[in-house]
Amino acid sequence: MTDNLDKPAEEYGTFHLTTILIRRARELMDGAPTLTETDSSDPVKAAFDELASGDLDITGDVETEED
Q1: By residue range, what is the domain housing residue 33?
Q2: What is the pLDDT of residues 33-44, one digit of tens each?
């Protein structure tokens, strides 16, 4: 991917956002602290809360594993 710092969140593809959320949920399951206050103990809900609050960085590159 290229530098996407000026790209609004609405222009990111579903695959990109899903991958970011899955990666973040896994980090939370492994014990990472939340980036925003949330009342949920569910890591997927917490990742969505972080995305909604704007605290989750979605501009980074998404690396996928090839078979």
Answers
A1: 9-53
A2: 999 998 889 999
pTM check: above 0.90: no
- Residue 58 makes CB contacts below 8 A (sequence gap 6+) with 9, 12, 16, 17, 20, 51
Q: What is the CATH number of the domain that holds 48?
A: 3.90.940
Quick one: pLDDT band at residue 2, thresholds 50, 70, 90? very low
Q: Is residue 28 part of a domain?
A: yes
The count of C-alpha atoms lying within 13 angstroms of the C-alpha of 18, restricted to the half-sphere facing its C-beta, is 4
